[in-house]
Design goal:
By secondary structure, this protein is an alpha+beta fold. Among the domains are: 90 residues, no CATH class; 319 residues, Rossmann fold, CATH 3.40.50.300; 141 residues; 176 residues, no CATH class. The chain contains 24 helices and 27 strands. The strands form eight sheets. It has a six-stranded antiparallel β-sheet with strand order 4-3-6-7-8-9. A five-stranded parallel β-sheet has the order 10-25-26-5-27, with helices on both faces. A five-stranded mixed β-sheet has the order 14-16-19-20-21. Strand 19 and strand 20 form a beta hairpin. The longest helix is centred in the first third of the chain and has 104 residues.
């Protein structure tokens, strides 16, 4: 796992304070960092957020002062510090999910061979708490060294050897040592589960005299996967295993150093354990790089002036040579325009003659059409009658075909429905079988419970028959049981009341917020009504109370481009789409219809000044858009669905484009209901993921304006809590009425929120009273429970264990398993039948659809047949003669044809003259375009070539708006340009300069200057970004350090409270020191000790363990190892420490703990979450007369 720590979110982008994989150059791009595995920030429990308790030293319950001391104790000072920083540091934090055993990264098994004192040893660990104990020399610490060596640590880190070979067992036959550690690899945090499976075994071989030295990674089936150290490091990083972190793995030497270390040593230990030291070094290296970039930018800026002067000189010389080229271009342009003007003059005359000819042709064509129609009418009755009869026959045949298709479809539908009905019957029978199987399963479970109850009864009977039970033991156990029941009941009551208190807290805040928000809405609506009433006859204010004033000043001001607004004034509802008006307005979004549109920066600045003058805040906003033709958007993807773009009628193209750009009106669909929209738009792809048809992103539907969308193949819903309103297409009077209605509805909501606020405040106060009352009762029961335990401890030596009896329930459990398998199989069959039915449904529905379509088509054919029969009868009855006046029409056509022939002769003559002028103009245009497309060096050789016919065809006629002058004007201007060009050429020839060389020098100087300026810009931007990112990361690093310090301080005091003490951890970040202040008696403020050395050895050891456990709260490694944690501890303190460790470890049931001690812990009761491993005593202890190690015994409740 990486060390990313997510502190907060801003604009939906995560900001990180550190990453172990980042170097200095990657700090600019925070989102480019490798994603971290699932980790969470250290969490402070809900108990830290409880109401502040009474200070120690204030009046006690009996009304007397505590020893007359009025200064706050260590615990009181801690409570104040936590209260001050809670809201600022813990907002948005989350806790790791608890309640299930760890699944990834914990150690399942350790195997060593020829390692240190072990020839062969295999240790299987519990997934939660493990105690490894044994005499000195039994090889306990070798297990810890094996974990360190196998997971990447060096030999010196173990404090057992200087090199790896020294760790090989001293035996003449030992050539190599092998160490294996098997880690669990399950759950969401598993490392490459598809490759390694549910377990990863890491093996390290240490060869003494040749052979393989290194690592091997095996999968769940012990198949070798890799020998690369990088793969091991990646796996350890993913699972957040930190073997070098002394807080994760604390061996004997580190424990002793930490116990006797100075304040600065403890602070250094704190920084290394939390990885704050590594991050600080990374930030310092980044700051050095920023300084180097600033120095480089300064040097480049100093040399930039020289490049600017060189570029300006080259540009000046190049401009002087451009004057001749400009005159030459003007002359060629004028020659071309003169030729085009001659062509235009001839062409205009040609067009006039053609228009006269075309007029006569049009008249002649009209007469010819009339003649053709008359002739056709006289010759066409038989053909039209035949067509009508053929149409009637065709319709008759089509009706027969439709009837046949209908009959076939009915038969196919009946056949397709038979399998569906059979499957439905099978599904019904299967569900009946499921009910029967579930009843059998319930009976089997009941038999299993009866058997277990019988076993418990026999066990109780055996205990009652045991001898030696005294009456006092029975009474003490009864009192203990009753006290435990009372404690559990009271704890549950306290937890329930605290939970009710915590649950009501946000509800009270929410109720207050809703009352305040409702009152603000009432004020806004009341203000809107007053503005609408004051606005007179203006309908613009319906979109915003300042829209009218802004619109009036816009009309008076002077702008460079168009200024439109408000947008709502240009928007109407399409006819027939009125029902979608409120829905379309909701989809557009609030604060859009009152906006104004500009097209350039100058107009935007002027409009901003108008808004400031009027006093606009968030209303009457500005949208800037580039002028563009109206966008072409896609229509709705299916019939029955409208988009916002199809519902609105927008009278201005700029307004339409603005709504497309800013509101995506073509991607928001509108529908009458959720079901209808899903039926028409949703479909499932080949991969089984949901998708939306077309380019639709969001779908809004009536009646409340709720919406849904599809993201990553998943359907998401969004409810609209606001009341739908309409301002588009609504007049002022109706707007006032709607606003008043909305105001009444809001007033009703505010009244309801006020009543709810009063109710919640009352319940909140009552919950606090119940909570405080329950805590008092709990303290009383705890005292009774402690007394009963002490009585039982004095009597436990006389207890006799009850005899074992048979508890085998495997037969009943197998019966339950079999019945459960039967139920599962029937349910799988049920699912399969449902899938088959769903697979048949589309085919049946398709046949039904085809049958309905065939019926409807058959009805339409019958209607067409009736209409065709009537048409044929009417046509036969109304036939009349159509041969009149045909000869007269033919004579008129002949006259027009003679006139047209004369006009064509005149047009041909004018056309020849226009073509001659056109050829000249195109030739000149061809040479000009050729010159523009060629380099100056090659242009002279190309201009002499005559253009081909294809070249001239590609020349287009210039825009006629540039040809307003007659040919005489262009001829005079051309003569003047020739004279000026001759004068300039004579003057430049005398200077003997090369224009091509001057141009090349100018281009080189300009490119060099631009490259230098771009380089400076890139350096400055990089430096700016690095500085900004460094400051943010450094600030979050300090916040992170402060938060860990507070969390450590609180947990340290909490652990000391278990022993009746209290304390605080004093961090001095400026001097880099860490001191401990301990109050040995939590009720006596005078017992404070700021110098830990003044404490006894056991008290100092307990204090050190408390600090280590507190630091461990900030560590998220999957397992932690403590070696000889109980050094210098007396029996009572050692018992308290072990009880505390077990309680803490079981609470953190998603972590694994390994505790190593030379003391005997066999009296600790093992359970599924706790395992005790006793090491075999060393063989040297069996020698007669050898010293025997003494261990302290203790018992655990």
């Amino acid at each position: 796992m990486s060390t990313n720590v997510l502190l907060k979110k801003k604009k939906n982008k995560p900001v990180f304070i550190g990453n172990s994989n980042l170097d200095s150059s990657t700090m600019v791009s925070q989102t480019a960092a490798r994603p971290a595995a699932k980790r969470e920030f250290p969490y402070v429990s809900s108990e830290d957020a409880s109401p502040p308790k009474k200070r120690r030293g204030e009046n006690s319950a009996d009304g007397k002062e505590n020893n007359g001391v009025d200064r706050p104790s260590v615990a009181d000072d801690l409570a104040e510090r936590q209260s001050e920083h809670r809201d600022s540091l813990l907002a948005g934090r989350h806790r790791n999910e608890q309640g299930k055993p760890p699944e990834a990264g914990v150690i399942r098994e350790i195997y060593v061979e020829n390692f240190m004192c072990h020839k062969k040893l295999r240790v299987q660990l519990c997934r939660n708490v493990n105690f490894i104990h044994g005499q000195n020399g039994s090889g306990k610490s070798a297990i810890l060294a094996a974990i360190q060596i196998c997971l990447g640590a060096g030999a010196r880190r173990t404090h057992r050897a200087r090199n790896l070979k020294d760790l090989v067992r001293k035996d003449s036959n030992c050539n190599a040592a092998k160490v294996q550690v098997t880690l669990l690899n399950r759950g969401d945090d598993a490392y490459q589960h598809e490759l390694y499976g549910d377990a990863i075994t890491v093996e390290r071989t240490i060869a003494v005299r040749g052979g393989y030295n290194g690592y091997k990674l095996y999968n769940h089936d012990m198949e070798e996967i890799s020998r690369n150290k990088k793969d091991l490091d990646e796996m350890l990083d993913k699972l957040n295993i930190q073997v070098e972190n002394p807080c994760a793995i604390l061996d004997q030497e580190d424990a002793k150093k930490f116990l006797t270390g100075k304040a600065s040593d403890k602070y250094e230990f704190f920084m290394r354990a939390t990885e704050l030291e590594r991050l600080d070094r990374k930030y310092a290296a980044t700051l050095d790089m920023v300084r180097d970039l600033d120095n480089q930018s300064t040097r480049l800026n100093g040399a930039l002036e020289t490049y600017i002067e060189q570029a300006n000189d080259a540009k000046k010389r190049h401009k002087e040579f451009q004057k001749i080229e400009e005159l030459e271009n003007k002359k060629e342009t004028c020659e071309e325009l003169y030729a085009w003007s001659l062509y235009n003059d001839a062409h205009e005359k040609l067009v006039e003659k053609r228009e006269e000819r075309d007029a006569f042709q049009a008249k002649a064509q009209k007469k010819i059409e009339e003649l053709s129609q008359a002739e056709g009418a006289a010759q066409g009755p038989d053909e039209e009658e035949t067509n009508r009869r053929n149409n009637l026959d065709r319709l008759t045949r089509e009706a027969d075909e439709q009837a046949g298709q209908k009959q076939n479809l009915e038969v196919d539908l009946k056949r397709a429905s038979e399998p569906y009905k059979a499957l439905s019957r099978r599904l019904k029978e299967t569900r009946k079988d499921i009910g029967s199987a579930e009843r059998s399963l319930a009976s089997a479970k009941q038999q299993l419970e009866s058997k277990r109850a019988e076993i418990l009864a026999r066990a109780g009977s055996a205990e009652s028959e045991a001898a030696g039970r005294t009456k006092r033991l029975q009474d003490a156990e009864a009192r203990l049981a009753n006290a435990k029941e009372d404690r559990d009941r009271i704890r549950q009551a306290v937890s329930d009341s605290r939970k009710a208190y915590d649950e009501l807290e946000p509800q009270v805040e929410q109720a207050r917020h809703e009352v305040s928000a409702g009152e603000k809405r009432l004020m806004a609506l009341n203000s809107r009504i007053r503005e609408l009433e004051k606005s007179g006859n203006s309908s613009i204010n319906i979109f915003g109370r300042r829209c009218g004033a802004v619109h009036d000043m816009v009309q008076k001001a002077r702008f460079q481009g168009p200024v439109l607004g408000p947008i709502g004034a240009f928007v109407k509802i399409a006819p027939g789409k009125e029902m979608y008006a409120p829905l379309a307005e909701l989809a557009i979004g609030s604060g859009m219809l009152d906006r104004f549109i500009v097209t350039n920066d100058n107009d935007r600045k002027i409009l901003q000044g108008i808004r400031r003058k009027i006093g606009c805040q968030h209303d009457c906003g500005i949208l800037q858009i580039h002028p563009h033709a109206k966008y072409s958007v896609q229509p709705p993807p299916v019939d029955g669905i409208d988009t916002v773009a199809s519902v609105l009628q927008i009278s201005n193209d700029l307004v339409y484009n603005s709504l497309v750009d800013y509101c995506k009106i073509e991607e928001k669909a509108l529908s009458k209901s959720k079901k209808e929209s899903e039926d028409l738009l949703l479909h499932r792809g080949n991969d089984g993921r949901l998708a939306v048809r077309g380019r639709i992103k969001t779908v809004f539907f009536l009646p409340k304006g709720d919406s849904w969308n599809v993201k990553n193949g998943t359907l998401g819903m969004s409810s609209n809590e606001k009341q739908l309103r309409q301002t588009i297409g609504v007049d002022k009077s109706k707007a006032i009425a709607e606003t008043r209605n909305e105001m009444q509805a809001v007033q009703h909501e505010v009244n309801q929120h006020r009543r709810e606020d009063n109710r919640l405040n009352h319940e909140h106060t009552e919950s606090m009273k119940e909570w405080n009352k329950g805590k008092g009762q709990l303290r009383k029961v705890e005292k009774e429970l402690d007394k009963a335990r002490r009585d039982i401890e004095s009597l436990q030596e006389d207890e006799i264990q009850a005899s074992n009896f048979d508890t085998d329930t495997s037969e009943h459990e197998q019966l339950v398993t079999d019945e459960q398998a039967t139920v599962d199989a029937l349910k799988d069959n049920e699912v399969a039948l449902i899938d088959q039915l769903q697979g048949l449904e589309p085919g049946i529905e398709e046949l039904k659809s085809k049958l309905n379509e065939t019926k409807a088509r058959n009805e339409r054919v019958m209607q067409d047949m009736t209409a065709a029969e009537e048409d044929l009868a009417n046509y036969i009855q109304h036939l009349s003669q159509r041969q009149e006046k045909l000869e007269k029409k033919r004579n008129k056509v002949k006259q027009y044809e003679e006139i047209i022939e004369k006009k064509n002769i005149q047009i041909n003559e004018s056309d020849d003259q226009a073509k001659s002028y056109l050829l000249t103009a195109k030739t000149l245009a061809f040479h000009r375009q050729k010159k523009d497309s060629l380099d100056e060096a090659a242009a002279d050789s190309e201009w002499s070539q005559e253009p081909t016919h294809a070249d001239l065809e590609g020349i287009e006629r210039p825009d006629q708006s540039q040809m307003k002058k007659d040919p005489k004007y262009y001829k005079t201007r051309l003569e003047r340009l020739k004279e000026r060009l001759q004068t300039e050429r004579e003057r430049r020839n005398a200077m003997n300069e090369d224009p091509i060389e001057a141009y090349e020098k100018y281009i080189r100087a300009q490119k060099l200057l631009e490259s230098k300026m771009e380089q400076i810009k890139e350096i400055d931007e990089t430096s700016k970004n690095l500085k900004s990112d460094w400051n943010k990361r450094k600030q979050r690093w300090r916040q992170f350090r402060q938060h860990i310090a507070l969390t450590t301080d609180g947990k340290f005091n909490e652990i000391l409270n278990d022993k009746g003490s209290s304390g605080t951890v004093e961090f001095n970040h400026k001097d880099a020191t860490l001191n401990l202040c301990v109050q040995k008696d939590a009720t006596d403020a005078n017992s404070q000790q700021k110098d830990v050395k003044a404490l006894s050895g056991g008290e100092r050891s307990y204090t050190t363990i408390a600090l280590l456990l507190a630091l461990g709260e900030s560590l998220e490694t999957p397992f932690r190892v403590l070696d000889e944690f109980d050094v210098f501890l007396d029996p009572v303190t050692r018992k308290t420490v072990i009880d505390t460790l077990i309680l803490m470890a079981k609470k953190m049931n998603h972590r694994q703990f390994i505790f190593i001690t030379p003391q005997d812990v066999s009296n600790v009761d093992a359970d599924p979450m706790l395992k005790i491993i006793k090491m075999t005593p060393p063989t040297r202890r069996d020698v007669a007369g050898a010293p025997i190690q003494q261990v302290l015994e203790f018992s655990q409740n």
